[in-house]
Amino acid sequence: MAYPREDAQAPLEEHRFPCDQCGADLRFDPERNQLTCDHCGFHQPIDDQPAALSVIRELDLKRALSQQLPETESEVTRVLTCPNCAALIEFDGSTHASECPFCATPVVTDTGAHRRLKPKGLAPFEIEEREAHKAMTLWLGRLWFAPNGLREYARKGRRMSGIYVPYWTFDADTKTRYSGQRGTVHERVRTVTVNGERRQKRTQHVRWNSVSGRVARFFDDVLVLASQGLPKKYTDALEPWDLSRLEPYRPEYLAGFQAEGYTVDLEQGFSEARDYMNRIILRDVKFDIGGDRQRVSSMDTKMSDVTFKHILLPVWLAAYKYRGKTYRFVVNGQNGRVQGERPYSVWKITFAIVLGLIAAAVVGYLSAQSQ
């Protein structure tokens, strides 16, 4: 797969949205679903796209893997690879130094240009930073063993970063031939003698019969994370995403936000999607076999009409360094669902253990006295 590759000679894709009133940069406002100037308060609607551009098109996977897509399906962006967490972060031409939003590592931006597949769609942010920050602090507040210092630091700390995280989606029409065995459980009752007493004992026996058949399933929008900047267990826990709310990609939605470049390439992404599809197909086969138990000997799956698209999903992110350790918290930019690293206070855990031992001792003493 040829994406991303360095392409220093190609022109960079840059987008700026200056305010018509004061010239400051506009940002996308999730609350108003339009561009807003934080300097003078000017608002600018996002114009409707032409009908030809308002549909999110799928791309042919085979053509992409054989590098046969038109060059218009890719773009050149300026990126930085974080030396600590390996996140690939896109920057505009005016940015010269920054901090990695994924791990809070101070970094200087790289001027390297990379050609990569364009996003086809994105889910715009629907909640503001203040809502995401409130959701995060409430989530931390429910963690009894979290250090009070970190809670307070997060509550009063810096603003969260709005990041568009890259994903792949895959569609495929599948037809599977299988062979296996259907197990039917039969119960047998026999009389046994135990210590001179006659009892009935029930045992189960499975009768197996060979079977074969076909199943078919169309997979729509199998979602695969294309980022390595955050642990997958956190991003998976942010689901479900409402992909029905995807919009055709427009750079206006990224105004004031950052976008992460994909670090899981298309071929890797499809391999993960295929594993997921195989698990679902195996479930379908077992259901088709029926009976009480199933054995699957072989599955031969044919895939057709395999397509994909590159999309961006909204995440509010906070990375705090506390006593030499980085804690990361993520908030789903659509619905406010929170996940993150669970910090633990040694003092609180010790106190809880001591309190438990004291309670056990008191109960033991009272029990001894009552006897």
Compact description:
This protein is α+β, with helices and mostly antiparallel strands and 371 residues long. It has helices at 61-65, 129-141, 148-156, 232-237, 266-289, 346-370; strands spanning 5-6, 27-29, 34-36, 43-44, 59-60, 74-81, 88-91, 97-99, 106-108, 113-117, 121-122, 161-194, 197-225, 247-248, 258-260, 293-322, 325-332, 338-340.
Would you give an account of this structure?
With 371 residues, the protein is an alpha+beta fold. The chain has one domain. It has 6 helices and 18 strands. Strands 1, 5, 6, 7, 10, 11, 12, 13, 14, 15, 16, 17 and 18 form a 13-stranded mixed sheet that branches. The radius of gyration is 28 Å and the shape is flat. The model is unreliable at 1-12 and 344-349 (pLDDT under 50).
Keywords:
single chain; alpha+beta; 18 strands; 13-stranded mixed sheet; 371 residues; three-stranded antiparallel sheet; disordered N terminus
Poorly predicted sequence stretches spanning 5 or more consecutive residues: 1-12, 344-349
**How many distinct domains?**
1
Overall pLDDT level = 80
Residue share in helix: 10-25%
Structural class: alpha+beta
Q: Sum up the overall morphology in one term.
A: flat
For the CA atoms, what is the radius of gyration?
A: 28 Å
Which helices and strands occur, and which strands form pairs?
Blueprint: E1 5-6, E2 27-29, E3 34-36, E4 43-44, E5 59-60, H1 61-65, E6 74-81, E7 88-91, E8 97-99, E9 106-108, E10 113-117, E11 121-122, H2 129-141, H3 148-156, E12 161-194, E13 197-225, H4 232-237, E14 247-248, E15 258-260, H5 266-289, E16 293-322, E17 325-332, E18 338-340, H6 346-370
Parallel strand pairs: 11-16, 12-15
Antiparallel strand pairs: 1-10, 2-3, 3-4, 5-16, 6-7, 6-10, 7-15, 8-9, 11-14, 12-13, 12-16, 16-17, 17-18
